[in-house]
Amino acid sequence: MKVCEIFKSIEGEGIRMGQAAVFVRLHGCNLRCSYCDSMYAVEGPDFKQMSVGEVLAAVEMYRNESGVKCVTLTGGEPLIHEGVGELLTAFSDAGFEVNIETNGTVPCKWQLPGLFYTMDWKCKSSGMSARMKMENIISLGKNDVLKFVVGSVEDLQEAEGVVARLSLTSPDNMPHIFISPVWGELTNEQIVNWMVGSKVMTQNNARFQVQLHKIVWDPDMRGV
């Protein structure tokens, strides 16, 4: 499979924010979001072909060196890759705790010990909202994450509508809900004020977050 980079850092967002993890970034994506901050993993030649065994060995090296047991599989879009099921099985069998970051267009069909999904719902400002599939969101469970990256008031309203629909469809199986800003667009204050005033978001325990790695390091820095 096409691997853009493997590195150790902290989780910048989501349920494990701030926790050490090994990142495996696969190359290639079926979307072209307006605010994408990792286009080097979407287009171009910045990758190398690696087998499942080679990827696992690289991740095992980090565990042997520092004891890290958390892995984040990201992209691009990792679930479009041939062999990703084999890779996820290998991580699970090896005892890693794997966060699969996915863009909401691909079914989350692998349910293995130690795996959970962080799924995006791409709102209107991404330019990709028409590609979203509610049936993929409904497949999420209590240990998974549904994330909205918002760049406008219209995006906030769209996120609220999706959460409202999901809470009616799957009231006893709601994922963790996170809202974060498109970097440099809506202010943190605007989003938080809106969230605390939203009954839907409050009732479903939605949480505000920022991309922590863009605060710790330069926002354009790779490998962090």
From TrEMBL:
Reactions listed under catalytic activity: 6-carboxy-5,6,7,8-tetrahydropterin + H(+) = 7-carboxy-7-carbaguanine + NH4(+)
Q: Which UniProt keywords apply?
A: 4Fe-4S, Iron, Iron-sulfur, Lyase, Magnesium, Metal-binding, Queuosine biosynthesis, S-adenosyl-L-methionine
The record's cofactor note says:
Binds 1 [4Fe-4S] cluster. The cluster is coordinated with 3 cysteines and an exchangeable S-adenosyl-L-methionine. Binds 1 S-adenosyl-L-methionine per subunit.
**Pathway stated in the Swiss-Prot or TrEMBL entry:** Purine metabolism; 7-cyano-7-deazaguanine biosynthesis
The protein's matches in InterPro entries, at most eight in alphabetical order, are given as: 7-CO-7-deazaguanine_synth-like (IPR024924), Aldolase_TIM (IPR013785), rSAM (IPR007197), rSAM_sf (IPR058240)
**Annotated residues for binding of Mg(2+):** S38
A single GO BP term for this record reads: tRNA queuosine(34) biosynthetic process
Residues where [4Fe-4S] cluster binds? C29, C33, C36
Tree of life domain: Bacteria
Q: Which cofactor does it need?
A: Mg(2+); [4Fe-4S] cluster; S-adenosyl-L-methionine
Name the EC number(s). Answer: 4.3.99.3
Recall the GO molecular function terms of this protein's record. Answer: 4 iron, 4 sulfur cluster binding; carbon-nitrogen lyase activity; magnesium ion binding; S-adenosyl-L-methionine binding
Give start and end of each Radical SAM core domain: 16-219
Gene3D superfamilies cross-referenced by the UniProt entry: Aldolase class I
Where do the annotations place substrate binding? Answer: I10, E11, G12, R25, T74
What the entry lists under PROSITE patterns is as follows: RADICAL_SAM (PS51918)
| Entry binding sites for S-adenosyl-L-methionine | Y35, C36, D37, G76
Q: Which family does it belong to?
A: Belongs to the radical SAM superfamily. 7-carboxy-7-deazaguanine synthase family.
Q: How does it assemble?
A: Homodimer.
Entry function: Catalyzes the complex heterocyclic radical-mediated conversion of 6-carboxy-5,6,7,8-tetrahydropterin (CPH4) to 7-carboxy-7-deazaguanine (CDG), a step common to the biosynthetic pathways of all 7-deazapurine-containing compounds.
Name this polypeptide is given: 7-carboxy-7-deazaguanine synthase
- Gene symbol of the encoding locus: queE
